[in-house]
Automatic annotation (TrEMBL):
Signal peptide: none annotated. The lineage of its organism: Bacteria, Bacillati, Bacillota, Clostridia, Eubacteriales. It comes from Clostridium paridis. It comes from the Bacteria. This is Voltage-dependent anion channel. The chain crosses the membrane at residues 6-22, 29-46, 58-80, 92-113, 125-145, 157-179, 191-207, 252-274, 286-308, 328-351. Keywords: Membrane, Transmembrane, Transmembrane helix.
């Protein structure tokens, strides 16, 4: 009864905010990134903040569930109105964003399963529904890659392609969290390697565009979603760690690959920010809202969560230096996550008071 009252109260608060401040228009295709960004904080970094974890964990998880419901309701409404294909599925690049629906549902379902005992059965239902959604999304990805190759859409690709890996690995993490040892190792292994194959395909296309083409500029052509270059492998590492389906030396290699690309991508991001400030000024350059910015929060949070779950001592090829890096990430990452979440929240409520959840500025 106590949870029911809390849910109703929070739902009414969110509903009033939505009615008063947000327009009733379809959610952006990548709106699931909002759930991904907030959810990975709840499932990872928040566990090392006792005040939030012990006092507000259930409230924040319930709030996450309500946000997921609102965004899902928008997609369901589009399906009922038969506009879902035109809005979300038609474009060969944009429709990769449907992967945020899968990953967002996985992250939300895990949070619900771990913190809201009254909804454990519902979390299991979420898993099976999400598995069907992932199968549909995989079919969309296959169609999209066909379009990229047949229509020569190479100049349009960016990090959004990597959501194919993120969504696939999220199923592994979700399944192992919900079912534990009952989730088949063969399924985990197969999905992990499928996700890696999808990563390699997307990685080649993205590197081909950004490192071997001059048809773009850093300040306008580099997208927020490119941070998934390291984020997609972070969730691959997490899936490997929680399932135990992959050799730990390979998991160590994945972790080192992530650290390398984290440094490369964030160095590019700093250069991009400098160029954008010089070109547009601080406000228009780096202090505007876009739904894809939540993907950066997710990738930061996923690196932290993977590092937290990764038992480095199980790898045979390790050193004190690597342990010090792991400890540094865990010590500093918590508060970095808090700061970027607060920053993104402020941007959202500055730029989105007359708009709907997930609409980019």
């Amino acid at each position: 009864m106590q949870f029911t009252l809390m849910f109703i109260l929070l739902f009414l608060i969110f509903f009033i905010i939505k009615i008063l401040l947000l327009k009733s228009t379809p959610s952006e295709t990548a709106a699931g990134a909002i759930v991904m960004g907030c959810g990975i904080f709840i499932n990872g970094a928040m566990k090392n903040i006792p005040l939030l974890e012990n006092k507000a964990g259930k409230i924040l998880t319930t709030s996450l569930l309500i946000i997921w419901i609102f965004i899902a309701a928008s997609f369901i409404e589009s399906a009922i109105k038969k506009t879902i294909n035109e809005i979300h599925f038609k474009d060969a690049i944009k429709s990769f964003g449907v992967g945020t629906w899968v990953a967002g549902t996985s992250v939300c379902g895990i949070a619900v399963f771990q913190r809201i005992h009254e909804l454990v059965t519902f979390a299991r239902v979420m898993f099976w529904g999400n598995l069907a959604l992932w199968a549909l999304y995989l079919a969309i990805c296959i169609r999209n890659y066909g379009a990229i190759f047949s229509q020569g859409l190479y100049s349009k690709v960016h990090g959004i392609l990597l959501l194919s890996t993120v969504s696939t690995q999220s199923i592994v993490v979700f399944g192992n969290t919900i079912f534990g040892d009952k989730f088949p190792k063969l399924v985990s292994t197969s999905l992990i390697y499928l996700g890696i194959a999808l990563y390699i395909l997307a990685f080649i296309l993205i590197i081909r565009k950004y490192f071997f083409s001059k048809e773009w500029n850093l300040e306008d052509g580099w997208t927020n979603t490119n941070c998934i270059l390291h984020g997609a492998m972070s969730i691959t590492g997490l899936a490997s760690a929680v399932s135990g389906a992959i050799n730990y030396n390979l998991v160590l290699f994945i972790w080192l690959w992530i650290l390398l690309w984290f440094i490369i991508v964030e160095f590019i991001e700093i250069l991009r920010a400098i160029k954008r400030v010089n070109k547009y000024g601080f406000i228009k350059g780096v202090a505007v809202y876009n739904v894809t910015q939540w993907s950066r929060i997710f990738t930061f949070g996923m690196l932290y969560t993977f590092t937290m779950k990764f038992n480095l001592s199980l790898a045979t090829l390790t050193s004190k230096f690597l342990f010090s890096i792991q400890n540094f990430i865990l010590r500093s990452g918590t508060w970095i996550m808090v700061l970027i979440l607060l920053y993104e929240g402020v941007l959202y409520f500055i730029y989105q008071p007359k708009n709907r959840l997930g609409k980019s500025a």
